[in-house]
Amino acid sequence: MTDRTKPEFDAPTGPAPAELVIRDIIEGDGAEAKRGDTVTVHYAGVEYESGEEFDSSWGRGETIQFPLAALVQGWQEGIPGMKVGGRRELIVPPHLAYGPAGGGHFLSGKTLIFIIDLIAV
């Protein structure tokens, strides 16, 4: 699991989805994440429109741990059901990420794509 490399993002086609898209790239076989859990993940995120990376735990060279409740709504809805050892792609529309354009965050109004490796629950 720890030897996995940073994911490559495929360029999306068509308009950004209006609802959360959850796609398992690799099915995990470990413990299952549930709402309210604290998770340890490796992740990378890009903007849907530009494909520009805005964040990556791989870039920092270490996993990150946090309670699901502290994350954007798209992660709160998209991580539960995922199993340790899995890799999942989430396409998160603005209303489940940082809100509409002008919301004060540099990612407000943007649809975001995350690829997440679940390391531990």
TrEMBL record:
Its EC number is 5.2.1.8. It catalyses: [protein]-peptidylproline (omega=180) = [protein]-peptidylproline (omega=0). Residues 36-121 form the PPIase FKBP-type domain. Coiled coil: none annotated. Keywords: Isomerase, Rotamase. The keyword Isomerase applies. One of its GO terms (molecular function) is peptidyl-prolyl cis-trans isomerase activity. It holds the Pfam family FKBP_C. It comes from the Bacteria. The keyword Isomerase applies. Belongs to the FKBP-type PPIase family. This is Peptidyl-prolyl cis-trans isomerase. It comes from Microbacterium aurugineum.
